[in-house]
Amino acid sequence: MREQPPTPSIPGQSQQIISLVAHGTATTRAELAKKMGLAPSTVSLRIAELTELGVLVEDGTGISKGGRKPRLLRLAEDQGQILTADLGSRHARLGRFSLTGTLLSTQTVQVSVESGPEATLNSILQAWTDVAGGTGADLSGLRGVGIGLPGPVDVGAGTVRLPSRMPEWAGFPIREWLEEKIGLPVIVDNDANLSALGEHHATLGPNQHSITVKAGTAIGSGIIVGGQLHRGATGAAGDVTHTRVAAAMDEPCTCGNMGCLETIASGAGLVRRLRRQGLDVSTTADVLELVHRAEPLATTALRTAGTHLGEVLATIVNFFNPDSLYLTGHMASSEMFIAAVRSRVYEGCHPLMTQNLHIGAASTGQDSGLRGAAHLVLNRVLSDIGPHR
């Protein structure tokens, strides 16, 4: 007997309804029930919740196919917003979304995680106010916020665990601190996990599988299984950056171990190696600028970094057999880097694993993490209204 795909959760059903209505694929209750394979009563329940939330409006009439004319569904005018942030070592990208998941605006601000959690989060709060178009502490219309962090996150506690690049953040109650400030739901997660969610839901179906690798100052990855984020037993699934690789030999890593992938394939690793070779670089952007100018040492280093990353990813692809492997982050802006990763993955994998495998840059680019955070915040908002029906 053929295994049936799992029934989406209540938030998943609601998000699917929003998407189908937004794209005009289904605009009546009957069309939604048929398209989603759900009972009409279930669809009616989800529509009632979305109407109460102010996301959907049911007005106008469609063409009758025998019986009463069906009422048409459409997205409501803006009835609230979600704010998100993708935090890096030296900057944060911010996003403002409607309750339908539409990205309305973005902004990038300079921050430094080395200044500690409270100073950094206060800067994010102020920047969110600016993005929302408010003044001072005005965040009217806000339904929730989501933030991605460049380190292992305890999602249940809303804290960072064993962060090698942001030690002052260890154990700091990020979610609790933000919720006290804004009095609304807060989602805290790893930045690579959020990028994986954002890219998957923008490009693949709910029953497909993908890996998204964020290659910037550090390297992280998120794993999506059947449309759902796979976190692993301790929430660290996909953290490939500290995989031991032979080519790194005894190069010390920020995690305290030696010979990690990060030391030879991350932006920070490239900066360190090129500085040893006499090049004046301080950031990943500096390295990419030299590559753009065809500087030989930088070009070779970037291509080699892609090869080393591809070697590790080949093992993961052989084990997981995903539909797609996406690359995002600063280093993924270079086609040379992506080509090196792709070449090594194809070389190291069984032909069945790469037969239909797509390897390329994330279509959502630097906004993938923002989109993933908005997806989780909307899930939380939809979950909060579900039990009242």
TrEMBL record:
Belongs to the ROK (NagC/XylR) family. This is Sugar kinase of the NBD/HSP70 family, may contain an N-terminal HTH domain. Coiled coil: none annotated. It comes from the Bacteria. GO terms for molecular function: kinase activity. InterPro entries: ATPase_NBD (IPR043129), ROK (IPR000600), WH-like_DNA-bd_sf (IPR036388), WH_DNA-bd_sf (IPR036390). Keywords: Kinase, Transferase. It comes from Arthrobacter alpinus. Transmembrane segments: none annotated.
